[in-house]
Amino acid sequence: MNYWLMKSEPNIFSIDDLAKRPNQTEPWNGVRNYQVRNWLRDEFKVGDQAFFYHSSCETPGVVGIIEIVKAGYPEVSPWYCVDVKLIRKFKRLISLTEIRQHPALRNMRLLQKGSRLSITPVTMEEWKVILALE
DNA sequence: GCCAACGTTGGC
DNA sequence: GCCAACGTTGGC
Q: Exposed (0-12), middle (13-18) or buried (19+): which is A85, by Cβ within 10 Å?
């Protein structure tokens, strides 16, 4: 089972928008980066969990947990998407600033210089640390 | 709105 | 296959 972090701009699609969807499930589409496409196509498995991350907003950060309920399938050629379902929204936002300041999260892919990938892998250790911050 | 960083495009 | 130009991401 894999862990991921998936970015979305909340003014376009927020965790509250996901909560309002039927069955709280929605295709995660629009990825237009080949590296991320390959992860979606080859690495994402049903049951994988991901942090829902709000980007390009007043306070970027992790706002909740989602689960992959449908593995990679074609969107429009040559791109892929997955279906995600809301597990829960966090009681509070865990900000990028807070993540950046935490020693155990120093090596997170999210924090790497110049990393602009809309989806990044998360290790089990990082997953646990962030969960404990809530 | 700025700009650093990175990806993509396309002429050669 | 190189690389300049351009487009996009996303924090600040």
A: middle
- Whether the beta carbon of A7 falls within 7 A of nucleic chain C: the reply is yes
Residue A76's DSSP bridge partners are none
Q: Å between A33 CA and B12 C1'? A: 27
Entry pTM: 0.94
> Which nucleotide is the nearest neighbour of A60, by CA and C1'?
C11
Q: What kind and span of H or E run contains A40?
A: helix A34-42
The first and second tokens of residue A134, run together, are 């809530």
How does pLDDT run along chain A (134 residues), one tens digit per residue? 999 999 999 999 999 999 999 999 999 999 999 999 999 999 999 999 999 999 999 999 999 999 999 999 999 889 999 999 999 999 999 999 999 999 999 999 999 988 889 999 999 999 999 999 99
A55 touches strand C (CB under 7 A): yes
